[in-house]
Amino acid sequence: MDKVVVSEAPPSNSFSEARLICRVCQKQFSRYTCPRCNTRYCSLECYKRHSLRCTESFMRENVMEELHQIQSNDATKRKMLEILRRVHSEDDMDSDGEDGSMLSEETTQKILSGVQLGLEDLSPGEIKKFQRAVANGELSKLIEPWDPWWRKSSAASISLGPSGNQLVKPLDVEENSECSFSASDSSSTEVPAGPENPLPPLHQLSRTEPSPLLSVHSIDVIYSYCFTLRIYNGDWRFDPLGAAMVLLTLSSVLGSDSRPETVSEALAACIEQTCSPAFRHAGGFKFGLILIDDAIHLLSLGANAIVCLLCDLRRLILAGEEMLKSEKMEKAKRAEGRRKLKGVDRKIFFLMCWVHEQSEEVWPSLAGIVGVEKASLCALDQDRGNYNMGEGKGASKAKVLVEEV
């Protein structure tokens, strides 16, 4: 019978701590544990060898658990039906000479009739095509690209009242709310509605003078908002809490209470997060340049567009806070999360009031500064060829903007 030494001492690098032999090769000390069966192994090769069936079933269980947690509604079903129809309407042949459609007619009809299917209900051919589509990114082609609202012609003619509120107030909005976050307020393809109630003057919100760095901080917030909406393809309403977490991860001003002092510093932090491992799939540095263009465009539209943006951002945060109430987690963690989101909401509201009080000359000037910084980044990218941090010779620390691990 094998002896297993158990040590209750805290982890350390000491040679005296308990060591276990890899259960696969029986040659090396184990460094890892299989998340499903707790088998100890020493390397990636041993992990693959220990049980392919084990790892596949572990992934399947996680996927099915996520699927069961999805709350279907009419809008979600309609979107799913559209995707299924587009999938099934593909009549091209794949590279193997097979029918290009991913699902058979029988499977499609079952789904359309409301039958819940699991991976085990698909045929081997359907599973093969599905796995191939996931691996090569074909599924992303089924999603219609989102056209940002700030790129639409209607965004150039946004009108708000003298106090920063909507000129026409919706009848179904509560009187005591500055920004409603109901899905009926605005479509993800239209300009988001501005505040329903007049914005208070800044001196009513704070006795101290606003920071002169708020213009710099606004760039961080605008960039992070554009990032979040593009990541969610314009529709954060199906997962407002997840969208809020993405926003706070991107924005150093809202997420970590950072205080960048220059436009260059603010953009550097945003680009660094965009190119981080957490968002590697988003598009890296090139995607960051698109987001800078978004920020320039929004700044060029002026205060009314930025107020509407910030009002939509408040809807996102408030919807995330509402969703957090139903999350299954420790009471203390839920309370901490809500406290964090309430603090972010107050910051955004203060920034919205500040934006409203600035002269219109501020925004084109700020857009020009951001444009200069973008040109500098493009020149740096061109000089380095493929933009990878830490590989260019002679790069100074002041120019360290991106690090992809």
UniProtKB/TrEMBL annotation:
Keywords: Metal-binding, Zinc, Zinc-finger. One of its GO terms (molecular function) is zinc ion binding. The lineage of its organism: Eukaryota, Viridiplantae, Streptophyta, Embryophyta, Tracheophyta. CDD domains: zf-HIT_ZNHIT2-3. Residues 178-205 are annotated as: Disordered. Signal peptide: none annotated. The keyword ATP-binding does not apply. Residues 22-54 form the HIT-type domain. The keyword NADP does not apply. Residues 178-188 have a biased composition (Low complexity). Gene3D superfamilies: 3.30.60.190. This is HIT-type domain-containing protein.
